[in-house]
């Protein structure tokens, strides 16, 4: 009866999955050796469809639409584009109270920051306020993050200003400069929407975390250095961002270009802002202190300049901020001519950086509150708001980490806090802008310096150094590129080093020699487990990567070098000659024709040395390709095993008998 049951079970397994034949070389007294399963052949179109789905739709965005009536599918489709229609149905007064407090708090922070950041982009102050009115409203309707606050940010403003002024002088040709800024913003939005619609968000991940940390830190230094113009009251200042050019310009103006009244204002209020930040960090309940400190600084410094008429003594002031809501800029965008391509290039770069920053911020706060942020939906929302923003006199906007942190600490519940902030900015544009006439430039410089200090993350740098030295090189490369040369060169270095790291890992994958961990049938890296013992006459090598054309030759040569080294050690210590080379293939997720060709060459090289090639645990994709290419027949299907232990048992029966005992 038991034999009948065994036959039925065996037949069922054979129907479900094919297996390679049992080894005819296996001794009768050896334990039963399981064979590697061979997956069923899939339809070509189904296989391609599954690959495309996993590449571009890993989150299965159509899952909510399954088995739903047509009317429900339409509603779900609208809610997917406008999430406000979904969470808005459960909105109540308790949530509104939290959003109201948060919205008013971030508004007090954003207004002085917007005016300051507009200067970084070489735009008039009102354009910074415009960018915190329309885009946040669009994002509140389309975005999936509850905590992220939208508006101008320092890094993107500096990047945009740097790239734009290389094409057009912002002082001599102010109108053309502004038009190119709107054109770049339009194409930044188009870039973001395109990445979201075509599910290409994974491209943003090619800029590594280490490179971003270095880039942000370098940008913070570059931004702070640029503020020395307003902080010291210097009139003639370099347009370059490199530290050498900036410090040369500062030193040149030291004898006659510095204004002591401006320095007193700047130093006093910078100290106040930094002290407010310190209070907020020491006591989380006082988060509102650093949030309102910039607005208090603007009010006090403006009042001080007005009553003392310090502007008559060389203190430079804002002078004029245009009153009223955003004018239309649809006709100002370059859709033809020489500036079209320039605007497109600048927009793509600015859009990618803005996207990287926003996605990182959204994910950070989503993990803190345990909800999901859809990266591709975020791209569409961010892109749409920038496209609409370019039509309403806004330059590139994205998520602000400092404001989002304040928003989170203030107890925001939904994106309505963005709407409240926009409403406050609207009221400012309509009624309050004339009051900023006597605001000194020094206070705007102090606000920017205090804000960008937070972008320098020394803890992250030290952690990167401890974890991965190559990541640290990428971090420092991006940092020094921005500080000593320019923002765009620093960005280029960051991207280049990130790609170089990927190429290095792909072309030079890790390999390891395995040994048997005592009192187990487990084989592990002998460097990680020094107590693991090597099997006499057998060399076990693990390949820790997929095998492609880019690394196949290296893997073959590295395995042969391992073999040569072990043979030399064996001769020196009078060990048995190596007769079997077992390649552990569990980490090998795929192999291409170049990889199979490299294994064929490896097999021929081993034959000349009278060494047999054995494979252990190739995955379904790998074993299928080995069979189709006839490589499995070349080495013998009885030389492909499910585990390293099975392979060793077949190659070294004496050891297998000892293990059984």
UniProtKB/TrEMBL annotation:
Does Transport appear among the keywords? yes
Q: Describe its membrane topology.
A: Multi-pass membrane protein
- GO molecular function annotations of the record: secondary active sulfate transmembrane transporter activity
A GO cellular component annotation in the UniProt record: membrane
Q: Which domain of life is it from?
A: Eukaryota
Q: SUPFAM superfamilies from the xrefs?
A: SpoIIaa-like
Principal place where this protein is found? Answer: membrane
STAS domain span? 528-651
Q: Which UniProt keywords apply?
A: Membrane, Transmembrane, Transmembrane helix, Transport
Query: Subcellular location, in the record's words?
Result: Membrane
- According to the record, the segments passing through the membrane are 180-200, 206-225, 262-280, 286-307, 346-367, 379-398, 419-436, 442-465, 472-500
Q: Which Pfam families match?
A: STAS, Sulfate_transp
- Protein family: Belongs to the SLC26A/SulP transporter (TC 2.A.53) family.
User: What name goes with this protein?
Assistant: Sulfate transporter 1.2-like
Q: What organism does the record attribute this protein to?
A: Rhizophora mucronata
